[in-house]
């Protein structure tokens, strides 16, 4: 049905998922010209190979917050001939709005858990490469809500749980024990909360307190 052989750059920091997608795309007639595990690798690969489309995850090293979609916005500005298909578990409305600011042509945004069939993903990939648009309805709904979403609403379920435990006075070590995860994992979630709440590090770093105060204020407590 679709005979165009697409040249694809794939940005995904999970090695297992990345390898699986390379096999899938190859079996469906695409040529994966490069893969990337970080945003700088993605930018370099697109600049070198000029693919038809770049498939981009939002959260990539080192902070696992929004490096991927930041790179996607940069690619839209520097390589307008390359389609962008964001493929993620998360909706980042602010960066999605910037990604679409110059027009939706050649842009897609799909949520991993809502793609039920491989054919849906491949159809979206080809549509974006051909200059069309492929937006998950949930992404559209979030964008339409725009600024009415609170900062707490931008958190993932796990980030929300971590912030709630912070508000209860738990340390990172205590949170790790409660959630049965590593302390390093908790640190990543806390860093993501700081980023989404726009709380940069300062000399008198009290971001933890400010994050909790923001949480309590927006929860109406």
Automatic annotation (TrEMBL):
UniProt KW keywords? DNA-binding, Phosphoprotein, Transcription, Transcription regulation
Presence of keyword Transcription regulation: yes
Response regulatory domain residues: 7-127
Tell me the residues on which 4-aspartylphosphate occurs.
57
Q: Which PROSITE patterns match?
A: HTH_LUXR_2, RESPONSE_REGULATORY
Signal sequence segment: none
- Any matching Pfam family: GerE
InterPro entries in alphabetical order? CheY-like_superfamily, NreC/VraR/RcsB-like_REC, Sig_transdc_resp-reg_receiver, Tscrpt_reg_LuxR_C, WalR-like
Annotated HTH luxR-type domain ranges read 148-219
UniProt protein name: Response regulator
Organism per entry: Kitasatospora misakiensis
